Amino acid sequence: MILRKHFRTGLRRVGLLPGLASVLAVPALLLAGMAGSAVAETTVEKGAYLVRAGGCLACHTAKKDGVAYAGGHALKTPFGTFYSPNITPDPDHGIGRWSDDDFVRALHEGVAPDGGRYFPVFPYGSYTRMTRDDALAIKAFLFSLDPVAQPNREHDVSFPFSWRFMQRGWRTLFFDEGRFEPDPAQSAEWNRGAYLVDALTHCGECHTPRNVFGGLKRDQYMSGTVDGPENQSVPNITPHATGIGDWGRGDLVSLLKSGMKPDFDNVQGTMAEAIDDGLKYLTDADLQAIETYIYAIEPIENTIAK
Asked: For residue range 65-85, what is the model confidence (pLDDT) as tens digits?
């Protein structure tokens, strides 16, 4: 300790200590900057993965000559046709002016920065279960994209469903806000699958029947419907004989990778898009977790075609 003190005193007397401190500070600052950049890059990469899982590309890109994530995709429903918004970081037509809290509120509460309520065609009923960290990783990825100055298109929805203020009543009846809570009685794989299915990939939004008001019939969870997106029939994916009860271990993973069913028939429509644009890019571990969870849900009889 005494030698160190004399050494520092000697350096100070000859004017070397401040200079030496400055020299040493340079690599320290460089390392700090590199670490910050690495963290940012990791967050963007994580967000890109989560965007794949969430199916954002297929929904927010117009089918014909659309620019990725710039909106304009037409989604036909029993209530009318909804057009997806621009989610590039354009400040005027996209989400470029949104704060972190704005973005998280949209996903968790279905509320826009100006206080308006989103129509539930935007699956915030599922995204509300997403962690804040995952939501912000998605935002980081979207903000890494080039902004696209493409205006949003008005929805073509029939009266009275076009009245946004009516969403207050709908939310009271059918929206349960809250983050995903792991079930301690289940395995880590089951819980990961539940989070992916119910918060990120939002499978129930398409595979669960809806009532006349568009609310999910939760007692028929994943049992299929004839009134799916684009007015398509959506199959029963519960482990019942009328669903996927005869599928073996690995069959669902294979479908999510290739789009091919165990009978060698290919899926069509929006499910094919969900696989091609997102699900097939998930890790084997995540796909297996999804399969574990789906195979464990309650079997429900529903004769919707497979």
From this structure: 899 999 999 988 877 899 999
